[in-house]
Backbone:
């Protein structure tokens, strides 16, 4: 193994040892306020350094595994940081008190949060529209119209527990006002 490969092996071992403690900005070696052009340049720089094809001819399976793991994390970092919405959310997550648990962007938990938001506001377009209208009516104090909107939303989504709760809540509010 030449000196270049020895240096890569040493660096890969060191990086892999702390990989689970690094956020995406640290993995790409950029600042948190780096513009998209810098994110892209850092991605290309780091991916060239740790691309698995660079070492395919070496017989060290341990090095192959380390480099592949690092390369995957570099790619993951780039896919999150190049998207402004995901980057903003990730930045909030890694700046918060639960940083250690938020170092990796979790697509599955993001899908679960999206599904929960949909369930809260409705899964059908008409259900969402009527539920949102009901919320506006309730906030304006027009409880009869709010209850009607929530009941109509239930026609589109009869099993939506949030819609049922709102119908009951508005009915209680109307009864309390009588």
Residues:
């Amino acid at each position: 193994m030449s000196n270049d490969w020895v240096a890569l092996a040493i660096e890969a071992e060191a990086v892999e040892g702390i990989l689970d403690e690094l956020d995406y900005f640290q993995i790409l070696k950029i600042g948190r306020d780096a513009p998209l052009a810098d994110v892209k340049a850092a991605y290309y720089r780091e991916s060239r350094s740790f691309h698995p094809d660079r070492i395919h001819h070496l017989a060290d399976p341990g090095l192959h595994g380390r480099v592949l793991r690092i390369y995957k994390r570099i790619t993951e970092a780039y896919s999150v940081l190049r998207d402004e919405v995901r980057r903003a959310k990730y930045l909030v997550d890694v700046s918060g008190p639960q940083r250690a648990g938020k170092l990796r962007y979790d697509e599955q938990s993001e899908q679960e949060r999206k599904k929960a938001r949909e369930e809260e506001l409705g899964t059908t377009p008409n259900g969402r529209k009527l539920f949102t209208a009901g919320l506006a009516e309730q906030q304006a104090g027009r409880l009869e119209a709010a209850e009607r909107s929530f009941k109509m939303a239930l026609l589109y989504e009869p099993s939506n527990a949030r819609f049922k709760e709102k119908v009951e809540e508005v009915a209680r509010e109307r009864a309390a006002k009588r």
Q: What stands out?
A: The mean pLDDT is 85. Residues 3-105 form a domain with the Helix Hairpins fold (CATH 1.10.287.110). The chain has two domains: 3-105, 115-177. The two ends are 86 Å apart (CA to CA).
